[in-house]
Amino acid sequence: MENQQERMDLSQIREKLDKAKEGGLWRSIGELAERPEFEEYLHQEFPRQSASLGDFVNRRQFFKLMGASLALAGLTACHRKPQGKIVPFVKAPEDMIPGQAVFYASTIIKNGGFGVGILAETHEGRPTKIEGNELHAASLGSSDAMMQAEILNLYDPDRSQAILKFGRIDTWKVFWEEAFTEAGRQKILKGAGLRILTPNTTSPTFIRQMQAFLKEFPQAKWYQYDPVNRDNLYEGARMAFGSPLMPVYDFAQAQTIVSLDSDFLYEGPAAIHSSRKFSEARRLREGMERMNRLYVAETMPSVTGSIADHRLRAKPSQIASLGVALAQAMGVPVNGASAGELSEAQRKWVEAAAQDLKASGSDGLVTVGDQQPAALHAIACAINAFLQSRVTRYIQPAEFNPGNNLNGIKALARDIQENTVEMLLILGGNPVYNAPADLKFEELIPKVKLTAHLSRYTDETSALCVWHLPESHPFETWGDARAFDGSVSLLQPLIGQLYPDTRSALEVITTLAGVSKLPYDLVKETWAGRNIDKLVHDGVVPNTAFPSVSVSVPESVSVPSGSLPSGSDTEIAFLPDPLIGDGSNANNTWLQEIPKPTTKVCWDNVAYMSLDMAARLGVKLDLTKQSYPLMEVKVGDRTLVVPAFPLPGHADGAITLHLGYGRTRGGQNGSGAGFNAYTLRGSDSMSMASGAELSVTRQMYPVACTEAHHVFDFGTGLKSPTDYIDSSNARPIMKVGSFTDYKKDPHLPDHHHHAMEPMSMYAERNYKTYDNPDNHKYAWAMVIDPQVCTGCNACVAACQAENNISVVGKDQVIRQREMHWIRVDRYYKGPADDPELNFLPVTCMQCEKAPCEVVCPVAATVHSEEGLNQMVYNRCVGTRYCSNNCPYKVRRFNFYKYADYDTPVLKLLRNPNVTVRGRGVMEKCTYCVQRINHARIEAKKENRRIREGEIVTACQQACPAQAIAFGDMNDPNSKVSQWRKQPQHFVMLEELNVTPRTTYLARVRNYHPELAPEEHHAGDH
Amino acid sequence: MQETIKPPMGTDAPLIEGKQNYETITEKIGGIVLKSPPKIWYPLFALGFAGTMVMVFTICWLLLRGIGIWGVNQPVGWGFDIINFVWWIGIGHAGTLISAILLLLRQQWRTSINRFSEAMTIFAVMCAGMFPLLHTGRPWLDYWLFPLPNWLAMWPQFRSPLLWDVFAVSTYFTVSLLFWYTGLIPDFASLRDRAKGKIAQLICGTLSLGWRGSAKHWMRYESAYLLLAGLSTPLVLSVHSVVSLDFATSIVPGWHVTVFPPYFVAGAIYAGFAMVITLAVPFRMIYPQLKDYITNHHMDMMAKVMLATGLIVFYGYMMEAFYSFYSANQFETYMIENRFWGPYSGTYWALMICNGLIPQLLWFPRFRHNLFWLYGVSMVVNVGMWLERFVIISVSLHREYKPSGWGFYAGTQWDWSMFIGTIFFFVMMMFLFARFMPMIAIFEMRDLWHRLYHGKSGHNGHAPAHVPNSAEVTSKEDA
Amino acid sequence: MPQVFKKYHNTVARVTIFGGLFGLVGLVLTASNVSRSSYVTKAMVPLDQPVPFSHKHHYEELGIDCRYCHWSVEKSAHAGVPSTEVCMSCHSQVWTNSPLLEPMRSSMASGVPVAWNKVNDLPDFVYFNHSIHINKGIGCNSCHSGIEKMHLTYKSQAFSMAWCLDCHRKPEANIRPQGEVFNMYYKPPKNQEEVEAMMKAHGLTLKPGEEMPTNSAEFGKFLVKRYNIHVEQLDNCSVCHR
Amino acid sequence: MAHGPIEPQYHGVMAEFETPEQVMEAAEKTRSAGYKQFDCYSPFPIHGLSDAMGVEEAKVPWAVFIGGFIGALSGMALQIYVNSYDYPMNVGGRDDLSWPYFIPVAFEVTILFAAFSALLSMLGLNGLPRPHHPVFNVPEFARASTDRFFLCIEAQDPKFDLQGASDFLKSLNPLSVSPVSND
Fold it and tell me: For an engineered disulfide with A687, which of A371, B117, B383, C197 has Cβ 3.0 to 4.6 Å away?
């Protein structure tokens, strides 16, 4: 039924797309259902420029300009709205109401092949927004920035649309002829010359098909490779328990959590789940007596590290030493390794962690980052087993052939070297770009006679393969995937194929195997015996999670010599980029522009290093130009030039490089952004390299960083900005404190804040009652809880997707013109080289006495009866006075025509319920007023009040930590009212008396008594 | 530029130099208009025109691309645009002050420079007015700032100081224009009667509205002129006060300062007199006949006004700093600390030197009486006043409440081309003015000369007080 | 010779001044009237359509309910324009050979939809929702007045913001019982008897403390209250713009 | 003395003087001679001349006051109408009738109206613009805007006759006396 209906819509869209090439019809697809679609009336005569907006005029532009300037007045005056069209259906689908969004369940495949269930909001057959699927274990209704941005990947104008042979457009027919010929030959050879390389997969249907395929070609080999993989994790489990097992943690119950370089709240297939569970335990409740304690040792400040109670910075090689020391302190015998020399701080950290772990007993756990060596994973397994941790359990890995990424890619390289490969199918992935540098895949691929690369972009690998096959987006295909815990969810097409020639890996492999079944039937076959309609409707297949595997406590852990890194003075840590991952999202402009969670850098990767190290290397910044010096990084015979970026909290003696940048064929946005760290990464140094040589050059490189402005004030007489984050110190911006203080006085009084009686010439506005019988007004309000906010930026991405927020490009970000309506402010506390990180998401505060409104000369921003600070884009003339007068600086201005009005496929992306803002217009958060209006209209039609929880703002919906509450503060039972009543509730910049509707709770850390920072603000007043 | 200054100096120098009578006054001043200009006029005008084209080009590019071509950004929403606006408006104020306030105060030395400075006012306000109109994101909708009945049922929002600006600046421009034109009517009549060509007669005749110097007309004229002066005085004070309210009514630390209105007005007069000197010195060189009327006496008086207003402004700076500390408000304190030691401390200290330190030279007659120094000081003040607006507007914005919302600001090439373009536009307009309109109020000079040398017995003298004057020699020839 | 001008120049001067003033006023008036004229707004101007569909014929003469074609008007922001299939459900039986209906038949056969010219085209930044108006007793012809008489469809209003605001500020002037929304011949009850009849017909009863409306204005106010319309909120910007 | 016939071809008779003091004296004498309709012309305002002529008037200040008053009222009324009555909006929690915010604009409108009243009332009372006037027919009058002072007895004066007025003016010791043609 779904299928039937889907196809109906899709054919419509397809038809329109075909016609779009003839021009003019894109307007009508918007008006398909009489919809006032995307375009604000804007002066179409003004030329649009590409994302990089240079300010200089060349000769041609000059003449164009001179001509245009003559006609300018006339043109602007003579603008006339073109005649709109209404194109109704020929045959209307039964249960689609034009103008009402429909939600479909599907699944997003994350790195490693793990699925996260989603619900996609579709408007007339085009998905516009992704939400998490509450029924899915890895989502629980929340999402992250990458999931939110996946919708842009679907509509990416750079997606490959055509099948290419040696770069020239060809047809599937010709490909299949060639492929079948070769496959026929291989069949006789039992597939001895056939190799298939895919990313890791958990899809039961795909694995079933592959296995069937491999039965036909028994000598053929199927390798899986992801550049960021879990090899070490499974190897470690094998060392400890004898088989590769996947640990699953219960962060809701854990009392002591020790993370050894594990960013479990952000990275990995269970991140959203972990974040939700961790926040449940962490959230302050009145009368709370006990709080979990999180220890993190890591090289670079991570999302998890930022919320840790005790974050220890350590070089990559030292993490293992800490693990060994921890094991020894716990009394877990480790053979073949010693902790070596630990510094005072490290020793104290280890002791405190060990003490807490022991005290927590079975409620303690140790988790290790995927990039850490297998032996450390083994040690962690041993400690957890030793603790008889009931918050750690082990299950079968969901992936096919787990833990063999490096082996696989090496074997493939060897096979090609030995000339045994005659036909190579690369179904997804990009080995030329991201395989270990020493394998030199760019030289290997051309050696194979028949190579075919299925991918969504014509990327680095496509360029070297004989055939490039365009891949369908997962939103266009049927399929299934397992979550981290093994539970299965289904993929269903949310839209018809945007481009007719794209295929999924499943389709390619079944066709090659000669199976003439449609993907839908294959999925149905896999889940035969279940109600497929219900599975598709819910998106999840119930009762498919893997059961726990019981493990025995290993008597001791033997660490083979050389399996723990030795370390050096200058080490490199390789990490996937927090947003563009291993590089597969490089062309996603949303992810490029969202500031990286802890560093606030966007559009680039840089070499992060400690402030001390930067000083030693002679790194000199030019902050007014946001320029950082380029630095040559040399490891062995491999070099990379990358900007040096001092980062408070980074471990000394190491730099961190994010993978995924420096693409050469990454689309118009991915190509040329950043620096390719894969060129430094060999198969012996997949996650860390030591013995790097660094030399800072005199060349400067601009880095777009949204919060560099105040971090470093070197050489001025000003107080360090770190003084300004502490509420008790200077600026009443954040309320931070310790759990001990909280238990003493949950109000966490700040010493400088003197409550004032607000004085006003004017009477208070009535936000309480209407004249009518149902006279209780809604008073929308939001409370944000920094206590659980990890700074992951899911809200930023969700807001961008929901509100049609434009991307401005690196140059404009450097000029401080980013457009995000919600931003996650980062405040440091403590010493500059090793501070605590605090995150504070800031949206428009919807002040009742809004300073922005009074200064608007055209009443483009005024208050609604429900207390919203309304922003009327079509009224705005763009004086920017409101933004100047906003103490929270949450308003965003379209300095140029940032919105892309022209690219046809991006028009499908837009939320039809939000105006696409034109040039010269101020914009800002309005608490998702389109959702409020929708709920109000639906409630009024049913003659009822809006229910608590009926309106969920985009940021709130996405937040994995559930750190945002939104609702009616006139309703005493609403969540937002409850949160506002919390003793630690506070109002940012309250003394300005602008009475914001968005307020905050405090951020409290649960310090170990031995490690608690000294209170340094005692003498400040 | 060095000019030999002959004694008597300063206020000892006469207000009118040389042998003069009604005819010579009329001929020397009116002749500039009726005769072809000095050769140097053409290249100077061409330079002004070329620079104006830079401005026009910038404006076209601005309208095509959007204000993103400027350096403004998220925390610093106002940059060169509003800095230049306030700077130009300030410059304009000296003209009104000279023509209106000094008239009410019966300062005779105003007569030689009032026309000139009124023209300066008008052109400066034109330059200033351009910026608020162009600084909006969608300038083609600027008419929404005016209360025009419309089909949207929408009106401007009169609580916004920006709208007060619209009314203040447009009223100021209109009233200045009326005042200026009122003064020009009798002079156009003079030119009409002296013009030889038919076209010049027609133009001047039309502009003079048929003025014939009737005593009844003069009576109403004087009444109206005085009333206009009386109206202009509160107007000029209100305009810069309103401009300062753009900042003072906001909540930005560094803007939210109650002392702003008087401090801005003083600053405006300060900048305006600097600009009058900046213009008067070269114009005296281009038109040497003007030296008879704009004498060292005038230069000295203007230097003294500059010194006085400069001290008021400097007091304002002191108060800003003092209250920032005295407030015990961490944001205010940080604001001034940031000015002192922050990334833009250079501009702050340069401002202190330009507006506070260097003008103190004017205490010494040696510097006041030396046109080279005087000119130099006035240029320094022009720069200093621009820096003051930079410090107040952009430096306050770049770091206000939330450190996460902090940023940097620098003008782009388009900011500079717009700013410099308006300077050239201003220069071009001044040259056009010098060419086509009497630079000094002729009838008022006649009146002044009459009072100084002819009517010593008092102006209701029934007996003809015939004071022989060397200037009378020429009058015999006409008889 | 000081006399530069002729005597008639005095007249010229006066005429210029007063003529200029009147001319300016005239220009403003003309401009504002032209901008509101149907030449600019296209109000009252029928548009050419692929098929000359007559609302008068279908509604008034045949008595087909609005919702037969505009089927989503109660549920969605969009009233819904009938699919080819809806048209052909009748026209496969009647007027099967009419040349006027050829576009519909070919659309049905080819699957290519008919592209109608949009008559009521609001700016893209105006978010109008049909369903809430219909559900709260605003009749079709409150906005599409005279639709039942239209042979060719035209917009009966220019849909200016001021016009929208008029009703949003005083909905009692246009509101009617929900049952009368699709009645193009609805007349507000003028006196108490008519009010009583109307209330009876639509099952409206007085609640305690309410007084029987005695004229159309009071009846409007009664309905506004009964349908729980918060008039204060209706002219908030974000009701229509977001 | 017989009333001479009003001679329509003449606007009056005009005498030319060299100094303001002379014309002032002449004006007083003309007034004491009983002439009512006469006017003086000077290249700059001569204080006391209108007194000497016996002309008193204060219409311009009144016009300015009325103009300013209307300006103040309409400025305030406009703002109250548009922001407090026609489309009242909740602007930053301020009252609909937040009149203190309306003072600056009301003030500016006051000045604007008053300034226009000043100029327009002056021009209106003076009957300007009037590019053509009979006095310009006198060739000597070209210097009226430079350095000569004139007194013209107009033909409309009941006491006027061409000869008598000319003789009277000649008695005032002018530089010249000429009839003013009306063409």
Answer: A371
